[in-house]
Amino acid sequence: MANAWQQPSLLTALSPETPADLPDRLLIIDTETTGLDPDRHHCLEVGAILFSVPQRSVLTQLSFLLPVRSNPARAVNGIDPRATQEPHPWQQSLYLLEAMASAAHVAVAHNASFDKRWFGLGQLPQFNLPWLCSMDDIFWPKSLGLRPRPSLRDLALAHSIPVWAAHRALTDCTYLAQVFERCNDLEILLKDALEPRQLYRALVSYVDRQLAKEHGFRWNDPVKGAWTRRLSERQITSLEFPFQIDIMAS
Predict the structure, then answer these.
(1) Residue 95's CATH number
(2) β-bridge mates for residue 57, sequence order
(3) More exposed terminus of the chain, fewer Cβ within 10 Å: N or C?
(4) Is it the case that residue 144 has pLDDT exceeding 50?
């Protein structure tokens, strides 16, 4: 018998309601960690939601702690390391997480460049999924009044979603799922977000640096001494200043 959780083909497993070039199931992911460096710190909490795009619905949700001895980031996430050491079925939760990933087409995180670094390390599995960042890759409608690269808090409030807590994994996943539930144009946002991107450098003077910042370009990240951002060919048409493809793009 075939494995019921075998990774579906992006083109053959999409539902009839979704255009063939779009994912119809998203794995919304968030992590809480003991620090910022995967080489020195550890992931101590994972939240995940399997979300149906055509149905605008949560299909499965999961949250669990991973045992750690200490948590230098406790002031941020509020997780007592002693709680992570309590008896609980975290190993079984890892199996369910892999099953959820095998049913999804794309992994989504609000800061994907951070969250994806922890998978494939320690106990966490490596996902064979493309990653999409809801902060960097999705260009949210200007009518929401959001700045480029909005915080998850601001994104939730712009969609009239109350923010009652922060920096716990499943809570942050829930905020993003509720944002997606309210997006009538979610398919269009995802299609645009999944377009191929290249790293562009803003050719702005020190005086005009605010222009780059207002368009979501970041200073010194990832190129030292430059304002850069990864954009699609369609997205660069909205830029109001000179730019060029950065030769350090990877």
Answers:
(1) 3.30.420.10
(2) 52
(3) N
(4) yes
Total number of domains in the chain: 2
Report the share of the chain in percent with pLDDT over 90. 82
Pairwise CA distance, residues 97 & 247, whole Å: 38
User: Which H/E stretch holds residue 243?
Assistant: strand 243-245
Average pLDDT taken over every residue of the chain: 90
Query: 38: which strand partners?
Result: none
Lookup result for tokens 């030292």 = 224
Q: Tell whether 141 and 228 lie within a shared domain.
A: no
> Cα–Cα distances in Å, from 142 out to 109, 150, 204, 211?
21, 12, 23, 16
| pLDDT for 15 beyond 60 | no
231 and 121 in a single domain? The answer is: no
Residue 24 token pair: 């119809």
In the prediction, which pLDDT does 246 show? 85
User: Is 124 contained in some domain?
Assistant: yes
Find where tokens 């579906």 sit: 8
Q: Is the pLDDT of residue 139 over 90?
A: yes
- Distance in angstroms (rounded) separating the CA atoms of residues 34 and 49: 22
Q: By CB neighbour count within 10 A (0-12 exposed, 13-18 middle, 19+ buried), where does 2 fall?
A: exposed
Token pair in block for residue 209: 């640096």
* Interatomic CA distance for residues 40 and 117, integer angstroms: 12
What is the span of the domain harbouring residue 211? Answer: 198-245
Q: pLDDT tens for residues 158-185?
A: 999 999 887 799 999 999 999 999 999 9
Instruction: Indicate whether this model's pTM tops 0.90.
Output: no
